[in-house]
């Protein structure tokens, strides 16, 4: 079990790295693909962290901190809402379901990799 102050510090450090990484992806990947990219990569990472024998401190740093700051449900939700508000319901639905499916596949891939390591 990780001590509360250490746990908060681990989340902060991981969150800082995740936020910087998220910004880096935003600079290199155009439009809504940036959100899809971070959410799928974050899902792979979290699936791995959840199944690999990484320990509490690493799970807190990488899972809660890094993945929490790197992935972005709010940007995903805004993207779907913007498409729907513009009347582009087909694209909104494809974006929503496609992102969700890709993220779930990502979790499965990460979990499989974590299970192999464990």
UniProtKB/TrEMBL annotation:
Protein name (record): Fluoride-specific ion channel FluC
Gene encoding the protein: crcB_1
Similarity section: Belongs to the fluoride channel Fluc/FEX (TC 1.A.43) family.
Positions of Na(+) binding: 68, 71
A GO molecular function held by the record: fluoride channel activity
A Pfam cross-reference name: CRCB
Catalytic activity: fluoride(in) = fluoride(out)
GO CC annotations, alphabetized: plasma membrane
Superkingdom of origin organism: Archaea
Subcellular localization, as worded in the UniProt entry: Cell membrane
UniProt keyword Transmembrane present: yes
Alphabetical keyword list: Cell membrane, Ion channel, Ion transport, Membrane, Metal-binding, Sodium, Transmembrane, Transmembrane helix, Transport
Protein's organism: Haloferax massiliensis
UniProt xrefs under InterPro entries: FluC (IPR003691)
One Gene Ontology biological process: cellular detoxification of fluoride
Entry annotated with the keyword Iron: no
Membrane topology: Multi-pass membrane protein
Role this protein plays: Fluoride-specific ion channel. Important for reducing fluoride concentration in the cell, thus reducing its toxicity.
Transmembrane segments: 32-52, 59-81, 93-117
Ways its activity is controlled: Na(+) is not transported, but it plays an essential structural role and its presence is essential for fluoride channel function.
């Amino acid at each position: 079990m990780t001590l509360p102050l250490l746990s908060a510090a681990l989340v902060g450090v991981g969150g800082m790295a995740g936020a910087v990484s998220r910004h880096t992806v935003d600079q290199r990947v155009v439009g809504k693909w940036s959100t899809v990219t971070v959410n799928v990569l974050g899902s792979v990472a979290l699936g791995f962290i959840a199944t690999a024998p990484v320990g509490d401190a690493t799970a807190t740093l990488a899972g809660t901190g890094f993945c929490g700051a790197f992935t972005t449900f709010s940007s995903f939700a805004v993207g779907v809402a913007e498409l729907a508000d513009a009347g582009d319901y087909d694209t909104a639905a494809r974006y929503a379901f496609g992102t969700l499916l890709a993220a779930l596949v990502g979790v499965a891939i990460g979990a499989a990799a974590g299970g192999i390591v464990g």
